[in-house]
Amino acid sequence: MDALLIALLGCLIGEMGDKSQLLALVLAARFNRNGAVIAGIIAAACANAAISATAGAYIGPMLGPDARLLFLSLSLLFLGFGLLWPVKAPDPLDGWRIGAFLTTALGLFILGFGDGPQFLILGLATRTADPALAAIGGAIGIIAASIPVVLLRDRVLAVLPIRVIRLCGGGILLLAGAVMALSAMALL
Length: 188
Prior knowledge:
Elements: H1 2-15, H2 19-31, H3 34-59, H4 65-84, H5 100-112, H6 116-127, H7 131-152, H8 154-159, H9 162-184
């Protein structure tokens, strides 16, 4: 159950104000087809989470307990630094003429591939015995961060203190990752 909750909260915070959320906003405004854009978000989030969890389930048994903890700590550090790093506006995919669903699904899948939340799911799946729960929690977190932007457009970004969420979330993740790394190296 830890994998589910950590992945859900980590991915939810990791997506706040991130390129994926901004791309979902742009595509929702461009296509004005909320259902198709939401379906694309769900497809991309589930695909990325499944790939990460599968890779983590494959890698985990090859590593010892301390190496798995260090791997998870690196994923937390990566996500934490990503939250503190300034976000550039993503490519709006104006040249893509494949419809709302496919543009959203493929655009977010490509954008999310190798992103902080996906690496967190990978780290959790590697560390825990529950890669499926890590995938489910991560996908729910990504979806929960993106759907309100589609439904409420930029009002969500105007109401939420995105900068504060990113700074506080980044600080917490960096602290947790550093403590885990020190513990994995037997320095704490």
